[in-house]
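Section 5.1 Outputs to date
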Amino acid sequence: MEPILSVDRLSITFTRYGRGLSRVELPAIREVSLAVEPGQVTAVVGESGAGKSLLAHAILGLLPENARVEGTISYNGVPLTPERAEALRGREISLIPQGVTYLDPIMKVGQQLRRGRNDRSARARCRAALERYGLGPEVEERYPFELSGGMARRVLIACAVMDAPRLIVADEPTPGLDVKVAQRVLGHFRELAEEGAGVLFITHDLELACVVAHKVVVLREGRTVDEVPACCFQTGEGLSHPYSLALWRAMPKNGMEVSGL
């Protein structure tokens, strides 16, 4: 089965200019490869600064102008150029961003979910999306500043999944959510995958990744060091890299607290 998303030897370097004509190239991601198949949740884990969020922005075509990209990102077997990513973003490909500041502060929640549409079908889907994440119909008439942090995060998730995208890129979607709501969100990711979508779940929480994901990709210092079935992190068997083994040993169920993620 052809992957929905394929990242092949992706490298991202930023150019920084100093005094005079001096120029410094700063590598951020180095030859990262991964794939997301239909019906699959792929989790990306790694320490802070490993390049997880940068990977999400590269897929969505949201990199700054001083970024130089090498390698290939493909969607449904066709290269995902920044122009194509822009055309598909918010339609077939959705981002659940890490920060709630992505919500428009001067637009009501309902308008943002419906993206300007006001027909009966759009209103019904908007209501259903909010209800799915425990938000009542009154939230449609609120502005983002009238929401708590947890409510705003749930609105972001509802925005991303309302139109049943084929690929969901979820960048740390659960911080600030209580346990029950987080479990509901992760369960919905599984449901979307079962309906044929692909989900790229970026998280620092390895235990959470193992609960929802079919496959785990481990990044370290901007490189892919492991790509294994999530079940490998239940027993430690099948982990090929010392860093992956260290993460497994540091999981709370193995008697240690996770550190450095």
